[in-house]
Amino acid sequence: MAYFVWPVLVVATVLAGCSGIRGTGSDAALVGGDDRRGLFSLVPKSEKPLAKARLHFKNEDYGLAEKYFRQAVEENPNLTVGWMGLAASYDRLRRFDLAARAYKVVIKQTGYTTALHNNMGYHHYLQGNTAKARKHFNAALAKDPGNPYVLNNLEMLESPSA
């Protein structure tokens, strides 16, 4: 997917430069800054749901992220990153039952990785179960000492507001 970075940046730069120009009729939608469909035209069709899901998750649009992660795993049930994103989206939507089911798929596909332990720790943290959260964060840290995401989550867990 890294090979798409340069063309996307070029398209984004061109679109940003054109955002103030308004055409007439049907050209207005193509040139205007509000239309982002052009960015996704560079992504292969099989990766579009995943790319959209990641964008929406990054923008904290968890409902749309869930929709596209679900679409991605329906198209490719072996897409571990899709299942992980789906579980994280469900966590943010406070649908912990569905998140747990998605995490079970990830466990079957990859076993307990650092990322899985970290996400499951956050899953339990959101539910208020700090003991299980700490267990998963510590397991993630044991697999990858110094991981900044895990360290940040452990720090969050230890903060007085947790």
Description:
By secondary structure, this protein is mainly α. The chain folds into two domains: 66 residues, Tetratricopeptide repeat domain (Serine Threonine Protein Phosphatase 5, Tetratricopeptide repeat); 51 residues, no CATH class. It is built from ten helices and no strands. α6 packs parallel to α8, α8 runs antiparallel to α9 and α9 packs antiparallel against α10. The protein is globular. The two termini are 37 Å apart.
Average the pLDDT over all residues and give the rounded result: 80
Q: Helical stretch count? A: 10
Largest sheet composition: none
Order of helices and strands: HHHHHHHHHH
Multimer state: single chain
Structural class: mainly alpha
Please give a handful of descriptors for the protein shown:
0% strand, 162 residues, single chain, globular, disordered N terminus, Serine Threonine Protein Phosphatase 5, Tetratricopeptide repeat, 2 domains
Short description:
With about 160 residues, the chain is mainly alpha-helical.
